[in-house]
Amino acid sequence: MKNFLKYLTILMILSIFSVTVYSQTSTEKKDAEPPKESSPADKIIVQVDKNQLSGGGKIIITGKAPAGRDVYIEVWSEKTVRAARLDADPDPKTGKRPYIFYMTDEMPGFYRLILPEKYKSILEEEKAKGKKWSVSEIIKKSGADAVYGYPAKIKIDRYQTTLWESIIGSRGTKLEPMDEKENKRRSMQLLKARFRSIGNVFSSNLKIEEDGNFKASVELPANAAPGKYFVVAKVDKDLKSEPLVVQNDVSFPSVYLPNAGRTVNIFWPFLLTAAITTFGVLMGAGGGFILNPILVMLGLPHTVVAGTVMPTVLFSQGTGIYNYSRIKFINWKLGITLGIAMLLGGFIGPKLTELITLEQYKFLFGWVLIILAALMFWQTTPKYIEKNKKEQAILKEFKKRAEEAAKKKAEGGK
Amino acid sequence: MKIEFWGQEFKANLFIGIPGAFLIAVVSSMFGFGGGPFMVPLMAVGMRLPMYVIVGSSLLAIFFNTLMGTFRHYGFGNFDLIFFLIMFPGAILGGYLGPKIAKKLNPVIVKRVACVGLLILALQLLGVF
Predict the structure, then answer these.
(1) Is residue A389 a part of any domain in this protein?
(2) Chain A residues with CB inside 8 Å of B53's CB?
(3) What is the DSSP string of A124-160?
(4) B117 in helix, strand or coil?
(5) Is residue A254 part of a domain?
(6) Residues pairing with B3 in the sheet
(7) Which of these ranges, A135-139, A163-167, A257-261, A334-338, has the smallest mean pLDDT?
(8) Which terminus has fewer CB within 10 Å in chain A: N or C?
């Protein structure tokens, strides 16, 4: 018990230390270049009320554009994240599914396209469509096609995949890079895949006066990435302002998760994991069943949730195996035979995580949980309890014998 | 397949065991949880093995899955080191506290509570409410 607490303290200090070191190096690494701008005859002037934020906050953007023109404002972060999407929608003409996997590592962690107030109804219309809303539709209808700039130029890789290739866990054959127009179109789909809801991509609070003065605001959430944010006001492709830079700082105990692309206060995932693992032990199932859906609902990408929660149980499983093997309570032949089948399954699963959308993840996970709940319920039926009592008694007896045997052997060894 | 465990011989039905273990591994590595609660019923009901054979061996089988899944997720860039370092001590703390509390509680009641909790979570994921 004393030893355990000691190790735990050491472990926590180590992890906090490495978190600080890691977050420092990762901020140094990336220096996104501000976009180049042209120098048009007409000018747009833009200013922000503050250049420095701490842990998110509201920025008021004001400026002046030529009178009578629509102004749009793009805001994006220098920090980038991954976005991916499998295009399996049947072709409207041929009905064939393309199975092309689009992926980028250059999606900004934060993006907002602020539309003039008069386009509010377009956003409402798209919201009414539910999950079928489309970025390109909004951009087209609000006349923002020429000003949609930054994400259109991110580097998107695409892979031709097949069912078979997904099964053996390959991303498929990498295809030629796309042309500018196609890249732009696909970037809009990836924006939706990454940001999930209209409010995370668009807003329509840009007030434009008759004389061309405009005013808008953008709220950086508390979980926004640290680093530089760029603000550009645009009228069309060539007529745009210089990019303004706003710096967002994140300080301990908040840390930025580079793969998940958001800032968290380190205490809540720690407490959440501790609480849920405790409950997981009580109900006899790992904590992942409860932890993963909650993390996903809190807005973390499902790929990162699956990929990061899984390793946390490696250690406890390893200790468990060691303890059982010490008392010879493992049948290696059986364990390894089934283990090889599971090894193959474990090879395929993570690939599927990447291919499915968040909606599919939630849907399938929902059914997994219903099956699990049914299993749990079955384990509380009187018949099962009766049988289990006997089994547990035999298990205890066997364990006792095994422990004694192991003890004897250890003493004999000395 | 015949297996021997503490002087007793058992027949393990691999026609159910191997496809079942494979499917459980696909699903659990896809969603990132351990497969324990599914593996134990598979081996107990599907393969008709007694509990004392299952406890250790199922853990060994699942370990293969977790290990492979971890490597694959890492390879696909789904692993976030900082997030892991925050959650890992939490998981250890939970693994330490859990058994201590478990002794004081009635497992049947805990399971029924878990059952309701899981259903609520499931319905939320399915978008029912």
Answers:
(1) no
(2) 331, 334
(3) HHHHHTGGG--HHHHHHHTT-TTT--TGGGS-EEEEE
(4) helix
(5) no
(6) B10
(7) A163-167
(8) C
Report the residue of chain B nearest A358, measured CA to CA. B125
Residue A400 lies in a domain: no
Q: Does A131 touch chain B (CB under 8 A)?
A: no
Whether A83 and A26 share a structural domain = no
Q: What is the biggest distance separating any 2 CA atoms in chain B, rounded to whole angstroms?
A: 53
CB A104 within 8 A of CB A217: no
Does residue A273 sit in the same domain as residue A230?
A: no
Nearest to A274 among B6, B85, B90 (CB): B90
User: Is residue A148 domain-resident?
Assistant: yes
Residues of B with Cβ-Cβ distance to A167 under 8 angstroms: none
Which residues does A55 contact at the CB level (< 8 Å), separation at least 6? A222, A248, A249, A250, A251, A254, A263
Q: For position A200, which CATH number holds?
A: 2.60.40.1930
| Structural domain total, chain A | 3
Write out pLDDT tens, residues A256-279.
998 888 898 889 999 999 999 888
Tell me what pLDDT residue A26 has.
43
Q: Does A271 touch chain B (CB under 8 A)?
A: yes
Do residue A311 and residue B68 have CB atoms under 8 angstroms apart? no
Residues A231 and A347 in one domain: no
- Name the A residues in 82-121 with CB < 8 Å from any B CB: 82
Q: What is the DSSP letter of A230?
A: E
Going by their DSSP bridges, the two strands A52-54 and A244-249 should be labelled as parallel
A160 lies in the same domain as A83: yes
Q: Distance from B94 to chain A by nearest Cα, in Å?
A: 4
The pLDDT tens digits of the residues spanning B24-61 come to 999 999 999 878 889 988 998 888 888 888 888 999 99
Interface A:B, Cβ pairs < 8 A: 412
> A210 and A109 in one domain?
yes
Give the gap in angstroms from C-alpha A64 to the nearest C-alpha of chain B: 43
pLDDT digit string (tens) for A86-130?
Answer: 888 888 888 888 889 999 999 999 999 999 999 999 999 999 998
pLDDT on residue A393: 85
Amino acid at B44: A
Q: CB-CB: which of A281, A316, A338 is closest to B21? A: A338
The C-alpha of A355 sits at a distance from chain B's nearest C-alpha, in angstroms, of 10
Residues from chain A that touch B77, judged by Cβ atoms under 8 A, are 82, 259, 307
* Spatial separation of the C-alpha atoms in residues A304 and A260, rounded to whole Å: 6
Domain of A344, in residue numbers: 266-380
**A376 vs B5, B115, B125: nearest CB:** B115
Do residue B92 and residue A368 have CB atoms under 8 angstroms apart? no
Q: Per the CB < 8 Å rule, is B56 touching A22?
A: no
Same domain for A163 and A293, yes or no, is no
The answer to whether residues A210 and A282 belong to one domain is no
Contacts 24+ apart (CB under 8 A), B107-110: B107/A282, B107/A284, B108/A380, B108/A385, B110/A282, B110/A283
- Together in a domain, A223 and A332: no
